[in-house]
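Thread: quick sanity check before group meeting

JM: Hey all, I'm pulling together slides for Thursday and realized we never actually wrote out the predicted structure for the chain we discussed last week. Dropping the sequence here so it's in one place. If anyone has concerns about the input, flag it before I start.
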Amino acid sequence: MKKKIPLILNSLATVFVAVVLLFAFLNFSSAPEKKGLFGYKGFIVLSDSMAPEFVAGDYIIDKTVPFETLKVGDVVSYLDDQNVLVTHRVHEVSEEGLLLKGDRNDFIDTTVVNEGNYVGKQQYKVHKLGLIMLKLGQPIVLVGISFVLGIYLLYHFFKKR
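JM (edit): ok, ran it. Output follows.
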């Protein structure tokens, strides 16, 4: 039984590290002008304009699908006139492009979405993962994690001697 516990802990740690690395690679490749990771891009939601669909602190994953396949009801990310990433629902399809609206908003977005400013279609949502990612990116947290890992490595280095 004693030998199984370290094996289980190591397996769980390996899976955890793999998931963290996957999200790190996804974030690294998620700038609007980049292609994404296998066509997928991840973003942290910063406002409640799409509540209750998703709220600030959630993490959404978009897939780049052909622009012409988008229809009313799809949730789409785009760059607005100030180059800010926005994710709202398609409210209307017009000759100029797509008109979008946040589920909680009473007004249609002023930016018309076309192939030039379209980023992707929302596929998945991970509730509150964005908050965790923001916290992990703070300098004091990074220093703390580095310190704990350093102590762990020193312990194992001197333990084997």
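AS: nice. The two ends are 26 Å apart (CA to CA). The mean pLDDT is 89.
JM: adding both to the slides.
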